[in-house]
Design a protein that fits this description.
The chain contains 12 helices and 9 strands. It is α/β, with parallel strands linked by helices and 353 residues long.
Length: 353
């Protein structure tokens, strides 16, 4: 086997602490004692301690960076793009001014406490999605002043499906700035997708995350978001990729019968639209039909994700099994492990001023 390239992790995580974010809140919000982001039913992801996060939620940013760098050195990873864990739920805050203040504090926190400690970790930003005008301003500030390269969109707690014109200012600004947007699944509002009465965490975790992602994926594509904003780079994370052929077959069928009226911005069927545009997905190395899904869409659209340090992440086994996958070509593996993430996040490219 050829030597494995240095890997770019397109979806790792930090375990941010509210007390660290709170230090960056401005007055009068820093005097407020409430939680900085909503929480839902207190499920037990660690299953009475049987399933563990790879490190403690109590660690400082400096301690987390140290662990990340050690792990990256051990497993040949050059860069890790890290998403929020609890902090992503600020998108569900209902008070407009508070959500803006917390988003700004979070972005200042990750820029200073993670990204400024090493150029190998790229923690992504958050936006107050309920206020697209303010989200647009915060995106511009965070890119130009803090150097953030990507912003995380959550699949739960949004006012509208993410293809709605309500969010046009966010997409327009991202395309103008050249920063990436990545939709990440959440599970905190299960009633949004019909699971409000579910009684076990396994049902919630299995169903709610992909169901909510499919809603927004459908909305974004049918409403022509990547067509209306040329150059916009979008990714759909942490739900694998073998759903893609099935779902795009359904979407193509509806486009053929109803597209002229209900999807007027799509001049080509959804599957071809995605093949032609910078839209990306992360893979799970153990997916049974992984080679078929990659062949269906083309290997330019897929990236590697460790999901480290989450309790359900399969790193480093998923990295080794992907590199040793017998049904994927060497060229495809190199694209997934490095080249596609370089393009999506525009790593090594000077930011627009």
């Amino acid at each position: 086997m050829d030597q494995r390239p240095l890997v770019i992790d397109a979806d790792g995580h930090i375990l941010e602490r509210q007390e660290d974010v709170r230090k960056y809140l401005k007055a009068p919000w820093k005097q407020r004692g409430t939680s900085l982001w909503p929480s839902g039913q207190p499920w037990d992801p660690e299953l009475f301690g049987r399933l563990k996060f790879k490190y403690s939620h109590d660690l400082s940013p400096a301690e987390q960076v140290k662990i990340w760098l050690d792990v990256m050195d051990e497993h040949g990873m050059e860069t890790a793009v890290c998403f929020a864990t609890g902090g992503q739920n600020i998108e569900r805050l209902q008070e407009p001014a508070f959500s803006v203040a917390v988003a700004r504090a979070f972005n200042d926190h990750v820029a200073n406490e993670y990204n400024n400690r090493t150029n190998r970790i790229k923690a992504v930003g958050l936006l107050p999605l309920g206020n697209p005008g303010e989200a647009r301003l915060e995106m511009r500030r965070a890119v130009k002043e803090l150097g953030l390269i990507c912003f995380q969109l959550l699949s739960q707690g949004n006012l509208f499906p993410l293809g709605d014109p309500f969010y046009n200012p966010i997409y327009e600004e991202a395309a103008s700035l050249g920063c990436a947007l990545a939709l990440h699944p959440g599970r905190g509002v299960p009633d949004e997708v019909g699971a409000g009465r579910v009684r076990t965490f396994s049902e919630i975790h299995t169903y709610v995350m992909p169901a909510s992602m499919l809603l927004h994926f459908t909305s974004i594509i049918y409403n022509g978001v990547p067509v209306r904003f040329p150059g916009l780079r979008l990714a759909f994370l942490e739900m694998g990729c073998t759903w893609i052929p099935y779902w795009l077959d359904r979407m193509d069928e509806h486009w053929e019968k109803r597209g002229e009226i209900e999807m007027p911005l799509l001049q080509k069927k959804p599957s071809q639209t995605i093949k032609d545009l910078p839209i990306y997905f992360t893979v799970e190395s153990g997916e049974t039909l992984l080679p078929e899904a990659i062949a269906y869409l083309g290997d330019d659209h897929f990236m590697y994700s460790s999901d480290f340090p989450h309790w359900d992440g399969e790193f480093p086994e998923n990295l080794d099994s992907l590199w040793n996958h017998k049904s994927l070509s060497l060229e495809t593996k190199r694209k997934i492990l490095r080249e596609n993430a370089m393009k999506f996040f525009q790593l090594g490219i000077e930011r627009r001023q």
